[in-house]
Design a protein that fits this description.
Layout (H helix, E strand, L loop, with lengths): L1 H17 L4 E10 L8 H18 L3 E5 L10 H13 L3 E4 L12 H10 L4 H7 L6 E2 L10 H13 L3 E2 L8 H13 L3 H30 L5 E6 L2 H16 L2 E3 L2 H4 L18 H8 L14 H4 L5
Parallel strand pairs: 1-2, 1-6, 1-7, 2-3, 4-5
The structure holds zinc ion (ZN).
Zinc ion binds next to strand 1.
Length: 308
């Protein structure tokens, strides 16, 4: 009798353990190496080191999408390019996010293609010196063209240059928190900045829960998620805590390439129109529109812009 109880207890325990789903996510960080830091080299280096150090401490892979515009600062070009070498030396992947972050939905095709080429001038030789290949491209604002013709023309252009488009499935609008956080820091209000950081960390779960549900609804399972965050001061201090939240949800960390081996990502993304996540595009293609509206859930005291 007793041994039956032990067996049963063991079975229940095993069931409870498997109830935590094994989830996978690839972290991608846009607007690298550092967003909106075009003056101060020391700040630029500090924020980049905060991001990279967090990933290294957590032993988590990531792909950093670069805007080379951030490197082109008089008198600081070598110092800024050296940061790219640090990311590569540490084993992280770099991707092209265009030179100056134009929206394909707003600029002419030729201008956008020029911006892609200009966006790899420094990075491509560095990547190749490291024995690696420049593979990933991400659309600024996730805007992939307003017409099927433009969309396809850019895809053809990217394919000729051996790029793959990096989709996004989890996007909790970190940049809104990041902007508010930096404004408070600059105003010397560390207490308010701390509150914003806390609210941001709580929003990580909301972002994942939304993508997980949409994935189950559309595909019947949770695909390996692809997270979009940005190279900001906020993430340079909040990334380790964000990763801890993901681990609690059962996430394991994979490279972008590993995530994209999932069958779901093999379908062509033909979506045109304003931005949106890959899951929203999928819903549209399947005739089951879904909305991953993470913007309206952000507390108003954070989204309110200070009067000018
Ligand atoms: Zn961007």
């Amino acid at each position: 009798m007793r041994s039956l109880f032990v067996l049963l207890a063991g079975a229940i325990l095993a069931a409870a353990q498997t109830a935590i789903p094994e989830r996978r996510v690839a972290i991608t960080i846009d607007d690298g190496p550092v967003q909106n830091e075009l003056k101060d080299l020391a700040n630029f280096q500090r924020i980049s080191a905060g991001l990279m150090g967090s990933l290294q401490a957590e032993k988590v892979p990531a792909t950093i999408f670069i805007n080379e515009r951030q490197l082109n600062v008089q008198g600081q070009r070598d110092g800024r390019a050296a940061v790219l070498v640090q990311w590569l030396d540490a084993g992280f992947d770099l991707g092209n996010h265009t030179y100056s972050h134009p929206s394909l939905n707003k600029v002419p095709l030729w201008q956008f293609e020029d911006n892609i080429i200009k966006g790899e001038v420094i990075m491509r030789p560095l990547v190749e010196e490291h024995g690696r290949k420049l593979v990933w491209f991400r659309y600024p604002f996730l805007d992939s063209g307003m017409s099927a013709e433009v969309h396809q023309a850019v895809l053809d252009f990217l394919r000729e240059r051996h790029y793959r488009v990096a989709p996004v499935t989890v996007d909790y609008k970190d940049y809104i928190f990041a902007g508010a956080y930096s404004r408070k820091l600059r105003a010397g209000d560390e207490e308010a900045a701390g509150k914003i950081k806390q609210a941001y960390l709580e929003y990580v779960d909301a972002g994942f829960a939304s993508a997980e549900k949409i994935s189950r609804d559309l595909l019947g399972y949770e695909l390996p998620q692809i997270l979009l965050i940005h190279c900001t001061e906020l993430n340079s201090v909040a990334l380790r805590d964000s990763i801890a939240r993901m681990r609690k949800r059962g996430y394991h960390f994979v490279t972008l390439e590993e995530a994209m081996n999932d069958a779901a990502y093999q379908r062509a993304d033909t979506f045109t129109g304003p931005g949106g996540s890959w899951l929203e595009h999928l819903g549209e293609a399947m005739g089951k529109p879904v909305e991953d509206d993470m913007e309206s859930g952000i507390p108003k005291w954070i989204t309110a812009r200070p009067p000018r």
